[in-house]
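User: Show me a protein chain along with its predicted structure.
Assistant: Here is one chain, sequence first, then structure tokens.
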Amino acid sequence: MGKMREKYPLLLLMLMMSAMIFHDEVFLQVFIGIGHEQYWFIHTLMNSMIYGGCIVLLCSLFPKSFRGKVQLLIHAFVTLVFLISYFVFKQFKIFYDLSTMFSGASDALGQFQNNVFLMLISDEGMSFILVTIAPLVLCFRFRKKLEHLYEGVRWNRTVTAAVTAVCICITSLMMHNGVSALAYDKEYSYQRAIEDFGLLTALRLETGRQKEEEPVFETEEIKEESKISEIIHTPEPVVYEDNSLDIDFLSLSENASATDAKLDEYCASLTPSRQNEYTGIFEGKNLIMITAEAFTKEVIDPDLTPTLYRLMTKGIQFHDYYQPASAGTTGGEYEIIFGAIPTSGGSSFKKMADRNNYMTMGSQLDRLGYNGWAFHNNSYRFYDRHKTHNSIGYSNGFMGYGNGMEEYVEDVWPQSDKEMFEGTIPLYIDAQPFNVYYMTVSGHNNYTPGSNAMAEKNKDRVAELEYSEDVKNYIAANLELEDALTVLVNALEEKGIAEDTVIVLSADHFPYGLDEASGLEKVNELYGFNVTNELERDHNALIIWSGSLEKEEPIIVEDPVSSLDILPTLSNLFHTSFDSRLFAGRDVFSDTMPLVFNVSYEWKTDLGTYVNGVFTPKDENAEIPEDYVDQIKTIVRNKMTFCELFNNTDYFAHIFGEEGNGSE
């Protein structure tokens, strides 16, 4: 070892730094406990060698007396990145990309300081901290020897090491083939990149994408989206009109920005969906949309939650619904309100605050003369909702705790959904037609004993359930939503307008706050099965109910449906003027192919599911069209590109003019 220090100090330094990085990558995966691509170990080892080599080469450029100190600083920064990423995942059960980490996550972690402290002092949290900082502590302890090694570095050996690092890099890139190649490029997502290549590579890819030119549609195969739908679904006789507007996309593209022109050409290539037998069944009715904090289908029970059960079974029944968890609460709201994947993570909704949000339900119904309100029972400034929720078309603006809601809701954590509904219903019930949006908070974590006021309030109602204490507390917290909906339905019926009102409810994300540990043990307990992929994790309930439906035969939707489909479906049911080509989702009653997809490029159609690079047919005996999987993968990639470009530009202002929310 002594001879090696003398002859090859640079090589020894590179090996040491690479080993430290690989150590952090491996233990992050161990503590997170997520599945990863089969070549993850080799990819991460190779990449760790590259990063270790690059760091040492960078440090060797400094004067000898500073080299060891610079390496310690870089190593400390890398260690901090791993710690932050781990605790963000521990809180939200997904990795947040850079934009979300410094916007959405910073909001959440700033408010929920008690949660952060509890995570830090937990056994698992402390263990991860100690394991992660151990290499840094050793480097600091032996910093003199580290500095001595740098003193022996010679530039001729540095050049040799640089060439070696380049060779390793080329080898690593050559290994990115098959499924992992798509995750590296066309089907990139930050979450998937960490699982396939490690945290530092994901950060490198994420940073690089911020500087790259905007993505492009796979134009040579865009038209296949219509063809594949026709192959699988026999078209009905043409008796219904298209759900489209008189938009000349190609003419608009002539004088458009590069981004808007790409979107114009893509939309022009699509075939509008048709109207159908359900078009306009809610025309003129009141609308109440609810995004329910951390809600899940398993909460609904005929005895424990009779109102939720009534709304789910007496309205439109969705048997295969998904709420993709892309960026926490604000990401879930974004999906429901805009009908798109939040490709900029927690920043996605914030980017829409000064846009022409012409196609939200708030804006569409506002143009029809509806009276609109948006409500939330937590801080009105959280996630910048005082900006975002005043830009989505609700004519009477947004009220949260701090700009009016405190008059109705007690200052506890979390605040009561029931109190919010009781206080706000009188504001709009006599202002028909009304269009109301609620973002609830009672179902928020923590669910440990004594940490949740709603769980404490309703604990006696779940005492006999055969679950662990945390799961019972979670259900107890959600009983406040049940009580809020009971208040709402009773008020509508007493007023005699239940048949003239539509209630729509979806979660923002799965109950990731159930598990303090990194895995999903308590989520699995609640679900009754072990989650193996994101689609299973994100299954949920969608409620679309009106008193007018209870007298009719049940409307049942068996096809896979996601939160992206809510906006186009409601637009069709309310018979508003909309263009189906402007949405990433679909009207579920239309002739368009059913398609659920998420930020990891997993997807599900009526013929099967594509997860981890494997397509599993729904029916083993089904005849799958030739090249079906490749065609759907292309469609999904194009839809993701649409979502990304849509979030990067004021596209509806380009189409409809500079009118804010599109009010006329």
